[in-house]
């Protein structure tokens, strides 16, 4: 579906796992279990999708992750 994008957070050697969980809870409103699951995906697979939607919103989400010190990119869904 064209026009659908996703924000992806990538693993980094700097941020603590607990901090990444906290960011996901604070910014995306994830519950503790979901934030932990997504953080573990970032940690073990090197990346995880944290949001999906229109490009403009995904750009905002990626920029927000940058302000928290996380490495994030956007990708168009195929």
List the helices and strands and how they pair.
Layout: E1 5-10, H1 17-28, H2 32-45, E2 47-53, H3 55-67, E3 71-76
Gyration radius over CA = 12 Å
**Model regions low in confidence, pLDDT < 50 over at least 5 residues:** none
When the domains are counted, the total is 1
CATH superfamily: Ribosomal protein L7/L12, C-terminal domain/Adaptor protein ClpS
Helix fraction?
Answer: 40-55%
User: What distance separates the N and C termini?
Assistant: 7 Å
Q: What oligomeric state is this?
A: single chain
**Topology order in helix (H) and strand (E) letters:** EHHEHE
Shape: globular
Indicate the CATH class.
Alpha Beta
Structure description:
This protein has 78 residues and is an alpha+beta fold. The radius of gyration is 12 Å and the shape is globular. It has helices at 17-28, 32-45, 55-67; strands at 5-10, 47-53, 71-76. Helices cover 50% and strands 24% of the residues. The protein has one domain (5-76): Ribosomal protein L7/L12, C-terminal domain/Adaptor protein ClpS (Ribosomal Protein L30, Chain: A, 2-Layer Sandwich). It has a three-stranded antiparallel sheet.
């Amino acid at each position: 579906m064209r026009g659908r994008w996703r924000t992806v957070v990538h693993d980094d050697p700097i941020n603590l796992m607990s901090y990444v969980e906290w960011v996901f809870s604070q910014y995306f409103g994830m519950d503790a279990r979901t934030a932990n699951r997504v953080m573990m995906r970032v940690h073990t697979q090197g990346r995880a999708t944290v949001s999906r939607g229109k490009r403009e919103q995904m750009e905002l989400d990626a920029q927000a992750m940058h302000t928290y010190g996380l490495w994030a990119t956007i990708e168009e869904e195929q």
